[in-house]
């Protein structure tokens, strides 16, 4: 059976499920938007599939969906917020809104968040800035799940990074990546499916590449992308998040897995940087420059056998356009997760097919 649902209906279901658990309606809508829009991009590993686990974490005492953001420091172009163990999507949505507001006046703004939880896909928040006509950069540290060149075991997080900038032919030019060769959730899913994986994804308990995910995450670790390059960029993310906020870093031993240790606070930190092009070369000129750059890339000479060159984010925006016009066909694992939640909370999912 196919599981097809309209984007707005998926948002409504997620909102209702969170409200059922007692979350304030505004925060429920923010969280639902972040998760459902991520599915619309085609990034199903970080979308609504995770909502059931978030709610289980709340029920187990590892996260507080009623938490209110606390302002620790605040200035014209910066702020540090304490999520107080609240849901990562809610804290991050508000933090990016604040960074955008400050950047309108100051030109550049950085807002960091500490004591938070898994925030889904970094690209969603970067695109909030792009929708406002600005350049957005979003990073988060995570629990240690990645090794370093020459080491074995989980030493640091595969700390995600995303950027987005406004364009014309697509809503934005954007990239959302983790510093490992793949996201760790893809390895977890391969284990559930009983599939082998490329030997560039993880190392085994001895620090050697392996195609067998059956012992991850109990043993082994993710491999950093491009060896020392992904390793070094992961450190940068920790410098911008946990270290800058005087909070936990992925190497401090104070961050635990959000999905495997449900009864414990995740304790991650995020950072949201926004640059307002109006204060530099001008907002319209910036969009025009971005569009010229994208056009040059698409028109570049193609390799033998290649039919198309994609700009960063173009594939995701094609997924998004189809999701809006036709509805989203959710993978079986995503549909199964939200159906299980639907049965628990008594909120019906309005499938189209």
Topology summary:
Elements: E1 4-5, H1 7-20, H2 25-40, H3 51-60, E2 70-75, E3 78-82, H4 88-106, E4 108-116, H5 122-131, E5 135-140, E6 161-166, E7 172-177, H6 184-193, E8 202-203, E9 209-210, E10 221-222, H7 228-240, E11 268-275, H8 283-298, H9 314-326, E12 328-329, H10 332-345
Parallel strand pairs: 3-4
Antiparallel strand pairs: 1-12, 2-3, 4-11, 5-6, 5-11, 6-7, 8-9, 8-10
Q: What's the tally of helices?
A: 10
Distance between the termini: 8 Å
Which blocks of ≥5 consecutive residues have pLDDT under 50?
A: none
**Number of β-strand runs:** 12
Radius of gyration: 20 Å
Structural class computed from helices and strand pairing: alpha+beta
Q: Let me know the average pLDDT.
A: 97
Sketch the major β-sheet: 7 strands, mixed
